[in-house]
Specification:
Blueprint (H helix, E strand, L loop, with lengths): L3 E2 L2 H21 L6 E7 L3 H16 L3 E7 L5 H12 L6 E4 L9 H7 L11 H8 L8 H12 L8 E5 L6 H10 L3 E5 L6 H5 L4 E4 L17 E4 L21 E2 L6 H21 L2
Parallel strand pairs: 1-9, 2-3, 2-4, 5-6, 5-7, 7-8, 8-9
Length: 281
């Protein structure tokens, strides 16, 4: 067996071509250029890199971007005021608050202050609830990107046992809800899970979203599993150890080049959808 490589980078490139055409069509119809506003709080270099990657992606598809950089001493109240201003700006169609924010800020309160129609990163409590209930909402960008990747490669989900390792509110939990909505049987594992190795060994679909380098060992994963690694750590390694998986797994995401590009693609795709909805009001 040779694992099918789930190439998120290649898929993102092809989808960007379609997004660019859609943006041009929307603007030609008289709509304003779709605009994504990004908010970076503090001076974390990794966060700055991620924000710039999202801005670059907007440029490639002909979308506008507005970059807001706030100091590391920013208060919750100041950040909330910034978000409120963007909520009320008709020229902004999507708002991204880069995670994480400095510790003195109530991140959840700030996420939830984003208007639901501009929550293109899928971080609000309301958006999560609507998505989980299969109501219209923008999904959390990383899980939404993963679902697009699995769909593109015709990965069967219905009736499969999906194991998600990680329960963060913007990755693990929405990932589990999306898989459940796709008729998979879902197990969520986390730091208090007992017999983690045994549970991972049952997975037909495995999603590593725990944020710890190579916590999930290759030997735990059964032959023929679909392995999705949502982690990225220094040295180009993910949350899942890959030794030998290329000859045992049915499908596998590379790190880098698997999930990451699809996260950004989902974000800009959902910003375009928000712009379309605004134009059609």
């Amino acid at each position: 067996m040779s694992a099918l490589m789930l190439d998120g980078k290649a898929l993102a490139v092809s989808r960007e071509a379609m997004l660019k055409a859609s943006v041009e069509e929307l603007v030609a119809a008289g709509a304003n250029q779709p605009v994504l506003a990004t908010i970076l709080v503090g001076d974390d270099p990794s966060s700055a890199t991620y924000v710039q990657m999202k801005i670059n992606a907007c440029g490639r598809v002909g979308m506008g971007s507005r970059s807001i950089h706030l100091g590391s001493d920013t208060t919750t109240e100041e950040l909330l005021a910034t978000i409120d201003g963007l909520n009320n700006d008709p020229d902004v169609h999507g708002i991204l608050l880069q995670h994480p924010v400095p510790s003195q800020i109530d991140e959840r309160a700030c996420f939830d202050a984003i208007a639901i129609e501009k929550d293109v990163d899928g971080v609000t409590t309301q958006g999560f609830g609507r998505m989980a209930m299969e109501e219209p909402a923008y999904g959390s960008a990383t899980p939404a990107g993963i679902m697009t990747l699995l769909q593109h490669y015709d990965i069967e989900l219905e009736g499969k046992h999906a194991v998600v390792v990680g329960r963060s509110p913007i990755l693990g939990k929405p990932m589990a809800a999306m898989l459940l909505n796709a008729n998979a049987t879902v197990t969520i594992c986390h730091s208090r899970t007992q017999n983690l190795e045994a549970l991972i060994g049952q997975a037909d679909i495995l999603v590593g979203a725990v944020g710890k380098p190579e916590l999930i060992k290759a030997e735990w994963i059964k032959d023929g599993a679909v392995v999705v690694d949502a982690g990225y750590h220094a040295g180009g390694i993910g949350d899942i150890e890959k030794d030998g998986l290329e000859s045992r797994a049915a499908a596998l995401t590379p790190v880098p080049g698997g999930v990451g590009p699809m996260t950004i693609n989902a974000l800009i795709s959902q910003t375009l959808e928000s712009a379309k909805a605004s134009h059609n009001q």
